[in-house]
Design goal:
heterodimer, A: Rossmann fold, six-stranded mixed beta sheet, four-stranded antiparallel beta sheet, 9 helices, 10 strands, globular, B: about 280 residues, MetI-like fold, 13 helices, flat
């Protein structure tokens, strides 16, 4: 349960452009243990999403290494599931076909996989919508379909890239709870990138605070809340929540 | 389409509990539709009627303007001579072949240019020049190169429709949300899978648009081609009719042309309904 599953070592990223060089990330070091829920918070443009893309192997860092269960990341890995800001369900596919996308791409569509898809859809209340198209579903349901699509490839680590910020506030609170519960039920490790301090505290075991560009780690907060059966919503009601919020808010040092 | 979507939403209103206001609204919408149809029909009737009356009263010279009854007579005569369907068939066949070829080739070129951004950057200025050039100017060149036969008509049409199709489809490809591509890449998808799983299916509306543009361009190409070389077809009838001053023949051909082009366009609209039903 407690072995380290993601190790980020001295990672740095520089972008080249005609106008010069932009250092997006510098000297990033942290690790994530199996089953942990970790958030990365930082001001916009601090390279949060870049960091996720590097961990997922979409493109290589210009410095340092990322290890997944001890193996160096050189390209996209089957251990990783990625969730983007919008659900990006394909309008031309039914819900069931959307859920099968990852396996189709990896050419892993088997009768067992089909059963698993239907089982997941049933478990998370989407079975009756399996033959509908995405435009017939609400925003929260769509986000749930997107998570199932990611879960279908059975990743060990979920990378959530601002995965809730396209939703309106109320929906977002519900979807936070929804997705958190699903992730815990499926025993996944998760790394969430967000600019929402409250969201990060309510969902995470640890919050990594990045500075503005070039992004470096300012601080890592261990979140310990006094509530049983923790969910994002119940987390928000604990007395410690406000304390962490103040601390992170100060750390974020927002100037407008 | 959108109505069905609403009914399927969890908290959408049901169509069954209709209020009086709603029934009144539906009736107004339906009445407006009927009025539009009636007026559209009246415009045709009045225009044809005036044309016929003016020609009969010698306000205009029917030898130059023709008239509806003469057009119908010409059609019947051509049909009885057994050449009407022959001419229509040849032109339609050319238009359909050119239309299908233009769409397929244009899409293939667009795929190649999407695949290699480098090639696209290299070829971009040439595409701009070719797109601006009035392709009809190349007609004589094609005749010399290919010979005066049906092949020239197809080539002429391709020259007119190909670049437009390519640019239209390519722009559609490039407008697709990068994150959709990223999604496929996070699953380890190859470039070919990005093409087949995202680019092509997401471009269905673009294809339909390209087809609609191509219907018009194909007919332009085919008629110009027939003006240049042909021995048969509606374009040939128009040129021939003009040369021997048979305006009845010219008008008849133009009207048949209009009908044929409309039928083809409606075919594309039908295809659109089938393809995009419920999805977008």
């Amino acid at each position: 349960m407690n072995e380290v599953i993601v190790e980020v070592q001295n990672v740095g990223m520089k972008y080249q452009s005609l106008n010069g060089e932009i250092t997006a990330l510098e000297n990033i070091n942290f690790s994530i243990r199996n089953g942990e829920f970790v958030s990365i918070v930082g001001p916009s443009g601090c390279g949060k999403s870049t960091l996720l893309s590097i961990i997922s192997g979409l493109f290589p860092a210009t410095a340092g290494t990322v290890l997944l269960s001890g193996e160096k990341v050189t390209g996209t890995s089957r251990k990783i599931g990625y969730m983007l800001q919008k659900d990006h369900l394909f309008d031309w596919r039914t819900i069931y076909q959307n859920v099968m996308l990852g396996l189709e791409i990896r050419k892993l569509v088997t009768p067992e996989a089909k059963d698993r898809a239907l089982k997941l859809l049933r478990t998370y209340g989407l079975f009756e919508f399996k033959d509908k198209y995405p435009n017939q579903l609400s925003g929260g349901m769509r986000q749930r379909v997107a998570l199932i699509r990611t879960l279908m490839t059975d990743p060990e680590i979920l990378l959530l890239d601002e995965a809730f910020s396209a939703l309106d506030y109320q929906t977002r609170l519900v979807v936070n709870d929804d997705i958190y519960t699903i992730i815990k039920q499926e025993h996944k490790t998760a790394l969430l990138v967000t600019h929402d301090i409250a969201e990060s505290i309510s969902m995470s075991d640890r919050v990594i605070l990045l500075s503005k560009r070039p992004g470096t780690i300012k601080n890592i907060y261990k979140i310990q809340l006094s509530c049983e059966n923790r969910t994002p919503l119940s987390s928000r009601e604990t007395p410690e929540f406000q304390v962490y919020f103040q601390e992170l808010w100060k750390g974020l040092d927002v100037h407008v | 389409m959108s109505k069905q979507g609403q009914e399927n939403r969890p908290h959408g209103t049901k169509a069954s509990d209709q209020s009086l206001e709603h029934i009144g609204y539906l009736r107004r919408v339906r009445m407006e539709k009927i009025y539009i149809r009636i007026i559209q029909f009246m415009i045709v009737v009045v225009a044809l009627g005036l044309w016929e009356l003016c020609a009969n009263a010698k306000l205009v010279d029917p030898f130059i303007t023709s008239q509806p009854t003469r057009i119908i007579k010409t059609m019947i005569r051509l049909y009885e001579e057994g050449v009407l369907l022959h001419h229509i068939g040849i032109t339609c066949l050319e238009a359909i072949v050119a239309f299908v070829l233009g769409t397929l080739l244009g899409t293939m070129i667009a795929i190649i240019l999407w695949w290699s951004k480098f090639l696209y950057k290299v070829l971009e200025p040439y595409l701009v020049v070719l797109n601006s050039l009035p392709k009809i100017a190349l007609g004589p060149v094609f005749i010399v190169w290919i010979g005066a036969g049906p092949a020239v008509i197809i080539v002429m049409t391709l020259a007119i429709s190909l670049i437009v199709t390519t640019l239209e489809v390519l722009n559609g490809f490039l407008a697709i949300d990068e994150d959709k591509i990223k999604l496929v890449q996070t699953f380890g998808g190859t470039k070919f899978q990005v093409l087949t799983k995202v680019i092509l299916p997401a471009s269905a509306p673009t294809f339909i648009n390209a087809l609609k543009i191509n219907v018009g361009l194909s007919w332009v190409g085919v008629i110009v081609g027939e003006f240049l070389v042909s021995k048969a077809g509606l374009g040939y009838l128009i040129v021939y009719g003009g040369q021997v001053f048979k305006l009845d023949l010219v008008m008849t051909s133009v009207i048949i042309l209009g009908i044929a082009a409309t039928v083809m366009y409606q075919g594309v609209v039908l295809l659109e309904k089938l393809l995009l039903k419920n999805k977008v």
